[in-house]
Specification:
Number of domains: 1
Order of helices and strands: EHEEHE
Distance between the termini: 8 Å
Low-confidence stretches: none
Largest sheet: 4 strands, antiparallel
Radius of gyration: 13 Å
Number of helices: 2
Number of strands: 4
């Protein structure tokens, strides 16, 4: 069973953090995955709830097409992304 999830991503042309906030509000925060203040989002538990693993995976899938976020800049692009589950 997983005991930690860490998600880190950066976006190019994310005007007003529209996509970042959408990912936060739609996927990460509702699952209990919180911003650490260092550019990563993390949840630790023993075990981590399966719903949190699913939410992190959904966030990763969404970031394949970040321009789909409501109000997003049409040129927004994911620069880098990593998902760590242990």
């Amino acid at each position: 069973m997983a005991t930690r999830i860490i998600v880190r991503f950066s976006l190019n042309a994310d005007t007003h953090s529209t996509v970042r906030n959408h990912v936060r509000d739609t996927f990460l925060s509702p699952a209990g995955i919180q911003n650490t203040g260092t550019g990563t989002w993390e949840l630790t538990g023993n075990p981590v709830p399966a719903a949190a693993v699913q939410a992190a995976a959904q966030a990763v899938g969404f970031l394949a097409n970040p321009a789909a976020a409501p109000g997003a800049n049409a040129t927004v692009a994911t620069d880098h992304l990593w998902l760590y589950i242990d």
